[in-house]
Design brief:
There is one protein chain. With about 210 residues, this protein is of the alpha/beta class. Helix content is about 20%, strand content about 35%. The longest helix has 16 residues. The chain is globular and about 50 Å long.
């Protein structure tokens, strides 16, 4: 659990794919956002219950955001919607590939306002056409960026050796992440351990040259 001034961030790894599910909870209002209902809804339900204890009032999931449409990131989405009644959001280009209806199509730069915090959608096109990262700006510390499968420790997301898709993802990540946010920004990826932009920045040219 990451305990920040206004919110807490909790995560759970689910499935054999080591998918990270994240919950952001506003301490004062109980507003919650769930990022990537990947799999194993009982585990997600437990995570939401743990996160609810971080709030001073009863917690409510206001939105479930899917970072991208790949199957391993949506397997518990229908159950999560049914259990919470929350609205859903995803990058606009990915919506046709998500079986659960999407209520909020996300475009680059969209700001979601919740009771106690905001998230900014950053479109990182390449891993999928509509992949989005979600940015939380902590008022008293580093920003937190939830990158789905677009940015990991050691490189960008898989673009199946397609030069155009890699070029798109590299360009978006360079412009919309590394040129936009400082080195202390904490990266929370869709699988595995986190990192910071400062740890990854020295390797950008290496990634560009190798093409993945």
């Amino acid at each position: 659990m990451i305990d920040l001034e206004k919110v807490t961030i909790r995560s759970r790894s689910v499935s054999s794919m080591d998918n990270n599910v994240y919950v952001i909870t506003a301490k004062d209002t109980g507003a919650q956002v769930l990022i990537d209902a990947a799999d194993d809804f009982p585990a997600i339900r437990d995570l939401l219950a743990e996160a609810a204890a971080d709030a001073a009032v009863p917690a409510t999931v206001q939105l479930i955001i899917t970072t991208h449409s790949h199957w391993d990131h949506v397997r518990a989405l229908a159950e999560a919607v049914a259990a919470t009644g929350a609205r859903t959001a995803a990058g606009s280009e990915d919506i046709p590939d998500i079986e659960v209806p999407t209520d909020v199509p996300l475009e680059n730069g969209d700001i979601g306002s919740f009771d106690g915090f905001e998230l900014e959608a950053i479109k990182l096109r390449g891993h999928t056409p509509g992949s989005v990262a979600l940015l939380y700006r902590d008022p008293s510390g580093p920003a937190h960026l939830f990158t789905g499968d677009s940015l990991f420790p050691g490189g960008l997301g898989n673009t199946q050796k397609d030069p155009e898709r890699f070029a798109s993802l590299y360009a978006d990540t360079l412009e919309r992440v590394f040129e936009y946010l400082p080195d202390d920004t904490v990266v929370h990826p869709g699988h595995g351990a986190g990192t910071t932009l400062g740890a990854e920045r020295p390797h950008l040219q290496e990634w560009k040259e190798r093409g993945w």
